[in-house]
């Protein structure tokens, strides 16, 4: 108790925040810990895109963007600390890249009137804007991913996968458990057998799971992994000579660093995705010119064009576009978090806009609306080529099973609304 | 000079055996209490409450709980994270089953449930001790986390396996959920901390505490002079579990609001609380406070100094943090193995004599 005094004295200096002039985009990144391999390229892409906007266009609508980076280590307690320490500095939007931190922040951002964008992760039922006013997860969510995987399997098996065995190897946390409900529903619908195999944090221990896979001989293995778990799983699959063509990961299990350690044996591994891969887009020339060559790249500057770098850049692009939309709606360049939320809800991403940004066909086109915060849920498939060390998109962005997903979203968000006394707000 | 004892006379046994026998200490204690209860609630904002004060208060309760077991009774435990999880899940089940009941009651009941579970895992302590007991409690840690991950009943069959604290109040003031005011959450935890510290301090001064310490110092000798080891050890486990359960319930319901058992209550949590107890000082209530404050504040201070003031990259600061915390632990254990409480005791001795040391 004596320490509280010291505590008080210490903090007086820290409580004072800087003046609010820029558009502030906090980056709750993680460059340390077992998930750093994914956190670093994402954060680099996020930072670099805003640096590009500042250097090339002089900011967003004439106002410079400022990224405040805060290290979470994928730890929820540190994530809360980061959120509390940055929200007073005019934060416009949070993108924590962690399902655990997302669950912490959902009620907090709603109370503080700051939007939260969990692109391709977080709480899936947040797609229902009627209930989750401040949470967005466009352009696709986990259940779209799960359905996308099943659709792809259907397609490659001539439309019939009844009687097939599909094993799901997943991270034993909220993140990994998300697709199970959807896959169970889909297994009833399409008649395949689902085997769920949990892997505990951080994921290095998978021997017994792969032993079981070897024994059960599933036709396909689906993976919901992140961080070090992916590399180990792909290596283990190679060790038991599981055919890589039949091994398909979610978008968080399909980047360069996941497949590289297994070398040539990872050739043919697949992953679903909601944006394009590679660096054959005009925007990368600009990034090279204005950011990398100018010595302003985030981190080591060696991640440009990697899958997760692209995703970080895509996240930054969507945030910047939402900020522009908000500036248009409210007629002021100096927007606050509440205006930003309106901008996100009115966001329209069409092909012309993407082409103008130097990202033609980089991701699906979509419109966000009051009741649909989840976007269209279009899912593509990528495949790894070990020889040229590149990922390539092998299918178009295709729709997922909205009939099944829509019902599950309705159910889950309805339960949340009942638990927290939320009335639907879109009329 | 600074530390005045002159003229501080005791005329009764009650005077002599009070917690703070020196008037100077006693006055300061009341001042701290007055500031904590009377001034901070009016000043506290979201950042202060959620990033610094709540973790400090809650970890202090956990450290007091573990200190009773390890510091006072000598039973090494690595199961703190698991027992905190019991408190959190008990609180969650109670909150969702009885929404109209006050949070005070939920938290205390959660502590009671944890006490029972902790006692069950304390049973092997009658036969084994030292490292072997550490391994047995380690098993409790892994078993409990596995259990809460495995059995959907504990998380009310939610799709993600997470538990979320719904909005609950006490005397009409919101305590949990995002709309709970910072002062209310702070005061709520402070009341529990004050209560736990008072109970712990008084228990350790009485018969029960003496029997714990007798067991710690030499269990066979204690048995010969008439201490019942079964009773002493199990009461230590029960009281310790009660406090740790309260801290787990507060950690989940008031501080974080949503918890994933493997991440929030993993083995790291057990180590963190154990470090707090060891650094703060085994067998000292003040040490529990000091240890919790040290390990909660140090990362925040390092972050503020490294990132905000010096402008270093966040990953370098995060790595430095590991190095600095690790180095400080080593230095501490070499320079002052009895922890910060002992540093304070030595400082007090010196201040008594200053400026005329012999």
Structural overview:
- The complex is a heterodimer of chains A (427) and B (358).
- Chain A is an alpha/beta fold.
- Chain A has 14 helices and 13 strands.
- Chain A has helices at residues 3-15, 36-57, 76-87, 99-112, 142-156, 174-190, 207-216, 228-239, 256-259, 282-292, 307-330, 337-345, 351-356, 402-420, and strands at 23-29, 65-71, 116-117, 135-136, 165-171, 193-199, 220-224, 247-249, 270-273, 348-349, 366-367, 380-385, 390-393.
- In chain A, the strands form 4 sheets. A 7-stranded mixed beta sheet of chain A has the order 6-5-7-8-9-12-13, sandwiched between helices. Chain A has a two-stranded parallel ribbon with strand order 1-2. In chain A, strands 3-4 form a two-stranded parallel sheet.
- In chain A, helix 3 (76-87) packs parallel to helix 4 (99-112) and helix 11 packs across helix 12.
- Chain A starts with a helix and ends in a 7-residue tail after the last helix.
- Chain B is mostly helical.
- Chain B contains 15 helices and 4 strands.
- In chain B, strands 1-4 form a two-stranded antiparallel ribbon. In chain B, strands 2-3 form a two-stranded antiparallel sheet.
- In chain B, helix 7 packs antiparallel against helix 10, helix 12 runs parallel beside helix 15 (339-353) and helix 13 crosses helix 15.
- The longest helix of chain B is centred in the C-terminal third of the chain and has 28 residues, at 229-256.
- Chains A and B meet through helix 1, strand 2, helix 3, helix 4 and helix 6 of A and helix 2, helix 3, helix 7, strand 4 and helix 11 of B.
How does the SSE layout of this entry go?
The complex is a heterodimer of chains A (427) and B (358).
Chain A: H1 3-15, E1 23-29, H2 36-57, E2 65-71, H3 76-87, H4 99-112, E3 116-117, E4 135-136, H5 142-156, E5 165-171, H6 174-190, E6 193-199, H7 207-216, E7 220-224, H8 228-239, E8 247-249, H9 256-259, E9 270-273, H10 282-292, H11 307-330, H12 337-345, E10 348-349, H13 351-356, E11 366-367, E12 380-385, E13 390-393, H14 402-420
Parallel strand pairs in A: 1-2, 3-4, 5-6, 5-7, 7-8, 8-9
Antiparallel strand pairs in A: 9-12, 10-11, 12-13
Helix pairs in contact in A: 2-10, 2-11, 3-4, 5-6, 11-12
Chain B: H1 13-16, H2 23-43, H3 46-72, H4 80-97, H5 103-122, H6 131-150, E1 163-164, E2 169-170, E3 173-174, H7 182-205, H8 207-217, H9 219-224, H10 229-256, E4 258-259, H11 261-264, H12 267-280, H13 285-309, H14 314-335, H15 339-353
Antiparallel strand pairs in B: 1-4, 2-3
Helix pairs in contact in B: 2-7, 3-7, 3-10, 3-12, 3-13, 4-5, 4-6, 4-10, 5-10, 7-8, 7-10, 8-10, 12-13, 12-15, 13-14, 13-15
